[in-house]
Design a protein that fits this description.
Chain lengths: 167, 479, 489
């Protein structure tokens, strides 16, 4: 069972990743990137890394990708680079799926998180959880963790240096 | 709940911390200072580098692990840090006048150089692949930005973009390789990988992982066939950054490669040395042959830097004590002579990069002409300069390990390289000057950097014993 | 006696170079005299060497030894024996003479003399280095100033000639480097000490000797030059300024021969025996080919250059014979060729400076107008073609005597070379100095005092060796016997 899920998710991941590169339309490619990131999150789940999976969706598929999309919108791309043909049906399905999503969310909350089936592996119950990751990050992997912050700082400085109109 | 104390050891990481603090200081001061007072930033930076250099020297001859075996302080890392810091020092000193000339005098420039140095230092003294990767990323990210620092110049933009795309691609390979190794050995710690590889059976994906790491680092050291970014990036980047890229990051890449290949995979020397043998030959030959036809001095030195990577690979193939120490000595010598040559190009400015612009340089600037000739002869491997000693040491270690064929190919390559290095000298010394533009005095700090590189080139060439001893004392015990 | 006399000799020109660099560009006279003085010091010291040399032994004398780079096994090790001392003397003499002869250089004077002095250091160093590392360094250092001297102050095709010279020589020396390294790692314990390596030579296997011999041979043969590596020589000689041609012909060519005698023979005796016959064949090709090309030359300087190719053939023939007389003849020829060809180049330069042409056919009957110059020139030409009583005769005679018992047919052919030599030199004398006076040269001034001063010592020595060769023969005998004994031929 697990293997089949893995296989399907992997195929989705690979195909979506390829589509990210191949698509001419930046918005579409960003959407495929979201698909790829979500598939990755499922892979994390399969590995029992629940915390990472959630973070992956919230941070990457959520925050970062929204930022990406905003930037693309703000870029003022020409029509041929950004050609969407708006259709009536699109709007209809859009609204329909939004309502479905809302209903689903309500159902999930009602059922509660308690009924999520546990896995058959006998792992440390905390494996992949917040606590164990936090412990690892602040003890054994303290150095890489701190280095990542330097990396992010450098990336920020770099983005400003390259993009700001007047330094 | 029990409190866990992380394994923090500030003492062994002090040179890195100094560089990091200075980088942040420069970054903070940049918006606070206005107008002429910004001139202080480069001086803060180079003083910081000098302090870090001092702290590296005080840490000499200790061997300590820290941060859960991720960080190692040993003479090997100290030696490489000396290389990086000297290179950074020279680049900062020679950048000051250049940046003003090009009207890009911003504090971020120095800050990014320091961050890059920080990344390199981590690469040299890391025992963990994750930290190596992070160090490499910090270094590369800074370099991508620095390569595009002349933002108004299209070539600089191209350089930055190309470097970024290919660099990111290379990082992907490296990361994939690390993942493979982790999958094979269940660790990213080089010591544990070493213990694993000494076992009887090595799974196939251990080698795949190693191959991917080779590809990833191959991009950074610019070895064939991962060199195609080099000429364009070198040409477009601001000249001090070209000097920087060609010395520090290359040495950093080699430091990681040395640790991985000769330490963690030392017992599999037979398996990988064959691949490296081919890479070394191709890298040397390709760099030298293409360099023959270059007319832009930055591109010429770009191809020459590819060739020099090939010579260092020869030392890696040779392996053993003398292989490691000769590679280290070579990189030290290369830093001085290469940055030295670039300092003169920096002085002459971005507009004078064609070889024809160097006609009669020696009559106009006798000192610059003679020193550039010295560096060219050193790069070509002529006694009594550091380039000769370094090559001699590398080839002798190759012959010692029984790779006589490789040494002969290397020697023939250095023979070919003489032709294009000499062409620069011919143009400087034997052609009439092209224009009669006003002579500009040599800026003080640039002159200082030049003096420092000349000293390094001659000292390592005539009285190399002290540095040879240093290099020989700073090898990690290979397998 | 603990004065490091060889070090003084080798490094005094470097000191001169530094002084010259410190002088202002405009102080032309000062630069000239400083260079002259600092090239005169080695000459004085070389007299001291000659006086104190003990000819009864083949051991190294005036030895200096200091540790230098222990991790690479390199030491600062100088010494001189019967082979080195004459060469050191010749080098010091010709350098001094050439520097005096370069006083008429007016273009970038400072650089010229700086390079010249550096060149002298390199040359002196090669002849007394006893450590391979040091030997190689001097060998390479010499190339750089030579390259500049040809490339900046040379004739119309100077850049081409300079690069060609440089690349040819370097090509040889990189193989020498590999050879040195191979030798270093083969001998246990590793050493770069040439004397030690000579002692250990019997330990080397025959196959190894053959390979390394070839590596070294490439370096030396290109320098000599031995056919077919001679093509750089005419270009370099013709394009080089006069004084540089003197040094090039007088000293640099001898380094190849010196290398063969110092390195190849004692260290690879088995290979030396194996390659003796091919070497003799190449030598005779050198002799005949060089002489034939000379016959066809119209350019005076080119003629002298190709005569060097021919004369070097005699040296190589002497070496190939591996007899005491033959090798002694070679050393004699080295010295004598240095003196004679050096002087010939100087004299060609004298004529060229005045007439701005070297075309043999453009002159005629100069004897009428320039009796002194013509007399001196003729004297040296006669020396070069081997007139008895002059040094050329002695050396060629010794080579033939030494080589005849070994290679009868080859020597018989080589003797033809002497006839050809006489042919082209006499033809040259006839075209330039005799016959009808070309009125175009009416205003040609006679050779100046300074120029006479430069060739006088060379003439005196040439006649001295020709008449009384014993002092030189005595000086080198022990060393030559030792070389032959080591090769065991």
């Amino acid at each position: 069972m697990q293997f089949f899920i893995f296989l399907i998710v992997s195929i989705i991941l690979v195909v979506a990743s390829i589509l990210v590169i191949v698509q001419r339309n930046p918005v579409v490619s960003a959407l495929f990137l979201i698909a790829a990131l979500c598939a990755q999150a499922i892979l994390y789940l399969l590995l029992n890394a629940t915390f990472l999976a959630v973070i992956q969706i919230i941070v990457y598929a959520g925050a970062i990708m929204v930022l990406f999309l905003f930037v693309i919108m703000l870029l003022n791309l020409r029509k041929d680079e950004f050609g969407f043909e708006k259709r009536k049906a699109q709007r209809f399905f859009g609204i329909l799926f939004a309502i479905l999503l809302l209903v689903e969310l309500g159902v999930v909350i009602k059922i509660g998180l308690s009924k999520i089936p546990s896995t058959e592996f006998s792992l440390d119950p905390d494996f992949g959880g917040v606590q164990s990751i936090g412990k690892a990050l602040f003890t054994d992997y303290l150095l890489p963790f701190e280095l990542t912050s330097v990396l992010l700082l450098v990336a920020m400085v770099g983005a400003i240096v390259l993009a700001k109109k007047k330094l | 709940m029990s409190w866990l104390t992380p394994d923090i050891n500030f003492k062994i990481i002090s040179p890195e911390l100094i560089i990091l603090i200075v980088a942040l200081l420069v970054l903070i001061l940049e918006p606070l200072l206005k107008g002429r007072s910004k001139n202080i930033l480069p001086h803060i930076s180079w003083i910081g580098v000098a302090l870090a250099l001092v702290s590296v020297i005080t840490l000499w001859n200790r061997e300590e692990l820290g941060f859960n075996q991720m960080f190692i302080l040993d003479n090997f890392s100290c030696f490489f840090k000396i290389i990086f810091l000297s290179g950074t020092l020279l680049v900062i000193l020679s950048s000051i006048s250049y940046l003003k000339e090009e009207k890009i005098f911003h504090g971020e420039y120095f800050s990014l150089i320091l961050f890059a140095t920080f990344g390199m230092m981590l690469m040299a003294s890391s025992l963990n692949l994750i930290v190596i990767f992070l160090g490499l990323e910090i270094m590369s990210l800074c370099l991508y930005i620095l390569a595009g620092f002349r933002r108004y110049d299209l070539k600089s933009n191209e350089s930055s973009m190309k470097y970024f795309l290919i660099g990111a691609f290379a990082s992907g390979f490296l990361l994939y390789g690390i993942a493979m190794l982790y999958g094979a050995t269940n660790s990213t710690n080089l010591k544990e990988i070493l213990i694993f590889t000494q076992g009887f059976e090595n799974p196939l994906f251990l080698f795949i992982g190693l191959g991917l790491i080779l590809v990833g680092l191959g991009f950074k050291i610019a070895s064939f066939p991962f060199h195609m970014w080099v000429p364009d990036v070198y040409e477009g980047a601001p000249t001090p950054i070209t000097a920087f890229i060609s010395s520090g990051p290359k040495a950093a890449g080699f430091s990681a490669l040395l640790r991985i290949l000769l330490f963690a995979f030392g017992s599999l020397h037979i398996d990988w040395s064959f691949v490296l043998w081919i890479l070394a030959v191709l890298t040397m030959s390709f760099g030298n042959v293409i360099a023959l036809s270059q007319t832009n001095i930055k591109r010429l030195l770009a191809y020459s830097s590819i060739a020099h990577a090939g010579y260092v690979l020869v030392a890696l193939v040779a392996g053993g004590d003398s292989g490691i120490s000769s590679a280290m000595f070579y990189l030290l010598a290369y830093t001085f002579m290469n940055i030295g040559a670039f300092i003169i190009i920096i002085f002459l400015g971005e507009k004078k990069v064609n070889l024809d612009d160097y006609s009669g340089l020696v009559t106009k600037y006798p000192i610059l002409g003679i020193t550039l000739a010295l560096f060219m002869f050193s790069l070509a491997g002529f006694p009594p300069t550091s380039g000769f000693m370094a090559k001699f040491y590398v080839f002798s270690s190759a012959i010692k390990s029984g790779y006589t064929g490789l040494a002969i190919i290397g020697v023939l390559n250095s023979f070919v390289s003489v032709y294009y290095y000499l062409r620069v000298v011919v143009i400087m010394f034997m052609r009439a000057p092209v224009d009669e533009v006003q002579k500009v005095p040599i800026p003080f700090f640039l002159g200082l950097a030049l003096l420092f590189s000349v000293w390094g080139t001659l000292h390592l060439g005539i009285l190399p014993q002290s540095f040879l001893t240093l290099a020989q004392n700073s090898i990690f015990s290979p397998f | 006696m603990n004065i490091p006399i060889l070090s003084y000799m080798v490094f005094s020109p470097i000191l001169g170079m530094i002084l010259v660099m410190l002088l202002k560009k405009e102080q032309v006279q000062g630069i000239r005299w400083v260079s002259a003085i600092f090239s005169f010091i080695p000459l004085i010291l070389s007299f001291f060497l000659l006086a104190n040399y003990d000819p009864s032994t083949s051991k190294m004398q005036f030895v200096e030894f200091h540790k230098w780079i222990p991790s690479l096994g390199a030491n600062y090790h100088l010494g001189a024996d019967g082979l080195s001392v004459p060469m050191l003397f010749l080098t010091a003499l010709l350098s001094f003479v050439s520097i005096i002869g370069s006083f008429n250089i007016n273009f970038r004077v400072k650089e010229y003399f700086a390079f010249f002095l550096l060149l002298e250091t390199g040359m002196l160093g090669v002849f007394c280095a006893l450590d391979f590392f040091l030997f190689y360094i001097f060998w390479e250092i010499m190339l750089v100033p030579m390259y500049f001297l040809i490339g900046i102050w040379g004739g119309p095709r100077k850049e081409y000639a300079a690069i060609k010279f440089f690349l040819y020589t370097l090509f040889g020396s990189v193989f020498m480097l590999v050879g040195i390294l191979a030798l270093y790692f083969t001998v246990e314990p590793h050493t770069l000490n040439m004397m030690e390596l000579i002692r250990r030579a019997p330990e080397l296997s025959r196959g190894f000797q053959l390979i390394v011999y070839v590596a070294f041979y490439l370096a030396f043969a290109i320098k000599v030059p031995i056919f077919p590596f001679h093509t750089w020589l005419p270009d370099a000689h013709v394009e080089a300024p006069t004084a540089v041609s003197v040094v090039l012909a007088g000293i640099l060519l001898k380094m190849g021969l010196y290398g063969l005698l110092r390195v190849s023979y004692p260290m690879f005796p088995k290979a030396a025996l194996y390659f003796a016959l091919p070497l003799a064949l190449l030598a005779v090709i050198n002799i005949i080919y060089g002489a034939l090309v000379c016959m066809a030359q119209k350019d005076l300087k080119k003629l002298v250059a190709y005569s060097s190719v021919s004369h070097m053939g005699f040296c190589v023939l002497g070496i190939a014979a591996i007899t005491v007389t033959g090798i002694s003849g070679c050393v004699f020829q080295m010295v004598s060729h240095g003196l004679i060809t050096g002087a010939l180049f100087l004299l060609v330069g004298v004529l060229y400076d005045r007439a701005h042409t070297r075309d043999i056919d453009a002159f005629g009957g100069l004897w009428v107008k320039l009796p002194v110059y013509s007399g001196i020139m003729t004297l040296f030409c006669l020396g070069s073609l081997g007139l008895p009583g002059l040094s050329g005769f002695v050396s060629e005679f010794m080579v033939f005597i030494g080589a005849f018992p070994v290679f009868k047919v080859i020597v018989a052919i080589a003797v033809l070379g002497v006839v050809l030599t006489a042919g082209y030199f006499l033809r040259m004398i006839q075209r330039i100095f005799l016959g009808e006076f070309n009125p175009k040269w009416e205003g040609l001034p006679e050779i100046s005092g300074r120029e006479i001063f430069t060739v006088t010592p060379l003439a005196i020595l040439m006649i001295f060796i020709g008449v009384y060769p014993m002092p030189l023969a005595n000086m080198i005998r022990a060393t030559m016997e030792n070389i032959v004994r080591l090769v065991g031929g």
